[in-house]
Amino acid sequence: MNEKKLTDKKMGRLLFLLCWCVYFSSYIGRLNYSSVMSSMMEEGILTLSQAGSISMVYFFAYGIGQLCNGILGDKSRPQNMIFLGLFSSGMANLLMGCMKTFWVLAALWGINGYMQSMIWPPIIRIFAEKYSAEKKRQYSVDIASSMAVGTLTSYFLSACAMKLFTWQAAFFLAAGIMASIAVIWIIGYRRVDRFLMQKGTGTTVSIEKSVKEEADIGQEKVHTPLLPLVLGSGLMGILLPVMIHGVLKDGITQWVPTYIYDCYDVTSSFSVLVTMVLPLINLTGAYAARYAGRKHPEEEIRTSIWFFGIATAALLCLLLFGKWHVLLAVVLFAIITASMMAVNTLYVNMIPLHFEAQGRVAAVSGLLNATAYLGSAISTFTIGILVEKAGWPVTMAGWVGITAVALAVCVIMRKKTFLMKA
């Protein structure tokens, strides 16, 4: 191996590590609120409905921001967007620790959600533009580990902050970590930029793409208007499954501790422990999606049929047999959420990579992510109402029904691919 290729690989790994750290830290500054919510209610700062409303504001702001910043992410410098989003999110966390008024807290957490939405679309654009076809698919899956590690780290740091200091410390700690990593990001990316300039053709050249790949993309890349692209490519047809997977991936995960605590003779700490373990198990779904993607490249919809099918079967088993034992319910929940992580990887991470030639990687990623988080926001609000009014069996029957609908849509669209040309 010659020295230049070795340098390319090192720089490629550095850029991925920087992206990984950015997305990891974003989770520290988004999940800390749910960790300290009970303490804020105990102090009388928030009521139960107000605490839930703040979560819903975050989801809606993040979802809307994904769409807006996805479009912006195809035209702006991705490194600047990521820095602004992460640093501003850190400042929103800092102010959250200083305020105790509901409307101010809701506004700040909404700002946090919007600023965090500036992070993912530029990252997926960087993967598409800077790496070879094999590497960009690999890294779009590998970055899922940052979500799992970030989730566990957020819960751990928030618990330590509350134990040693106060709930405010959880926000201050997150702010310090995010601001620091934002600075590290911009310094590190400038190093990558200098390497690209020295390589010979400026910042548009990729790190690990072949000369042929660079030339092909350079000739083909245009900025296709988003609406005609969505209507003409068939993306509109998968928006319903994407929304439903958001309901299952985030909505169900949030309600797992409550379900286990309500339905089984276990402690609240055990139910929370299950929530902490699920993100690690969910990683198996991401890597299962990558394995399936290698076997059937460019067939994300056909591949997703398997994962929606598995989730439907697991939900049905949960409805019929879940009350037999808490461990059976935990296993079934793990299967469901891992399957939805696989769908998330296929749809939100991999499908946008096909739209590099149209200059719409970030916009397509933002659209699909926004749709998923719309499902998350709706489910966060409606699941609680449904459980309160109709009980858990009816709620789970509803989960089975909507997952079966998503499965049916994917079966109908199974022959659709997104291998796009300019």
Write the layout of secondary structure elements.
Blueprint (H helix, E strand, L loop, with lengths): L2 H40 L5 H26 L4 H19 L5 H15 L3 H11 L2 H10 L1 H21 L2 H33 L11 H10 L5 H8 L5 H25 L4 H28 L4 H22 L4 H25 L10 H30 L1 H21 L10
Textual characterization of the structure:
- The protein is mainly alpha-helical and 422 residues long.
- It folds into two domains: 1-220, MFS general substrate transporter like domains (Growth Hormone, Chain: A), CATH 1.20.1250; 224-422, Growth Hormone, Chain: A, CATH 1.20.1250.
- It contains 16 helices and no strands.
- The protein has helices at 3-42, 48-73, 78-96, 102-116, 120-130, 133-142, 144-164, 167-199, 211-220, 226-233, 239-263, 268-295, 300-321, 326-350, 361-390, 392-412.
- Helix 3 (78-96) packs antiparallel against helix 5.
- The longest helix has 40 residues, at 3-42.
- The two termini are 35 Å apart.
Can you tag this structure with a few keywords?
422 residues; mainly alpha; Growth Hormone, Chain: A; 2 domains; 16 helices; globular; disordered N terminus
